[in-house]
Amino acid sequence: MIFKLTSKGNNLTEIASRLYVDKIPTPSEYKNGIEDCKCIWTNLAIYSILYDEQYIGTYTAGKTSRSYVGSKNCKKIDKSKWIIIPNHHPAIIDESLFKTAQENISYKPEPINKRENGTSQRYGNIERPLKGKVVCGYCNHKMRLSSTRNAVFTCMYTMAAPDTPCHKFKIGNNELSDVIYGLVCNHIDSLLQADNASNYTGNETETVDLITENKRKVREMFEQFTRNEINEDEFASVKRQLNEELKRLNQFNSTINSETGKLVSIQVIMNELKKYAKQLKQEGTLSKSIIDLLVEKINVYPGNRITVEWIYSEPKSVDLSTAMIA
Questions:
Q1: Residue 178 — left, alpha, or beta (φ > 0 → left; ψ -120 to 50 → alpha)?
Q2: Residue 176 and which of 93, 111, 144, 209 are 20 to 30 A apart at CA?
Q3: CA 283 to CA 129: how far, in whole Å?
Q4: What is this structure's pTM?
């Protein structure tokens, strides 16, 4: 169907709409045997099929390489080095139809944003701090930001699905930036107010002193044993108790070291936040560095509901002294 629709002059968006109407599962939905399929095709998925020579019986391998088995780093290989075997298996698409479809899909007028004096040339260099962070809260896909003076975020994933709540869903970049600016200011204030690194002061030193005292007792007991002041059973019993105490102290000391490391990181972040808090008040606008430091994801829902997933939440106070061994 995809090849026939393309050969008749349909573009990728029109094909995606037709596949959605006909409830044709996407490749991943078909492969995973999903029963309740959304049937929302992306342009990239359709484009990949149109250029996949497996449909005309050609076997292709060696397109990518990895430095070792299981590595996530995948490197593309030049086509001249691919393993290509024509007529490897029966074709399911006629080669003439395959070529016609490719010719139709490869002819595209020059995009407006690539033309001389186009929007990308006039507005492409404007900093957009929220770019890459905004996600449609309904379909959980990133929203595309336009390169225009009045830039908008658009949910492109459901463009072919008119009955979905986020179909053609848009939100203005300036409007969203104003809201996020207020949320970021409030979040920085709450983080700075909750800075409680001082709660841990002294715990590490106290634990080290207890470990040193424990080892001193072990040496003292050994000296008493060598002087025959205590017998072997008494020495073994006391040493066992001291070893158990030392084990608990070492475990607790590891916990303190871990928490101390976290607090050092938190303190570095707090210093950065103080600098950015001052910058926000002076400039009255967001910057990419502030967003990258604080914001993991911005979920935007139809109906103008917005939620922010923060990289750092308020530090929680932990009373390590409650775990100290008497």
A1: alpha
A2: 111
A3: 14
A4: 0.56
Cα–Cα dist 142/135, whole Å: 4
Domains and CATH numbers, the chain: 2-112 (3.90.1750), 113-326 (no CATH)
> Contact, 155 vs 143, CB < 8 A?
yes
The tens-digit pLDDT sequence of the chain (326 residues) is: 888 888 888 888 888 888 888 888 888 888 888 888 888 888 888 888 888 888 889 888 888 888 777 777 888 888 888 898 988 999 888 888 888 888 887 655 555 555 555 554 555 556 789 999 999 998 899 999 988 878 999 998 888 888 888 888 999 999 999 899 888 888 888 877 765 544 444 455 666 677 788 788 888 887 887 888 888 888 888 888 888 888 887 777 676 666 555 554 556 667 777 777 777 777 778 888 888 888 999 999 988 789 999 887 654 433 333 333 33
Q: For residue 80, which amino acid is it?
A: S
Rg, C-alpha atoms of the chain: 32
Report how far Cα 15 is from the mean position of its chain's Cα atoms.
30
Q: State the Cα–Cα distance between residues 147 and 168, nearest whole angstrom.
A: 17
Cα–Cα dist 213/311, whole Å:
42
**Residue of 105, 111, 16, 8 whose CA lies nearest to 52:** 105
Residues contacting residue 310 through CB under 8 Å, at least 6 positions apart: 187, 294, 295, 296
Report the residue count for the chain: 326
CA gap 206, 245 in Å, rounded: 15
Q: What is the DSSP letter of 312?
A: S
Question: Going by C-beta distance under 8 Å and a sequence separation of 6 or more, which residues neighbour residue 107?
Answer: none
Token duo for residue 114: 């690539």
| Cβ proximity of 207 and 252 under 8 Å | yes
- Rounded Cα distance between 84 and 58, Å, is 7
Token pair, residue 242, equals 């001291």
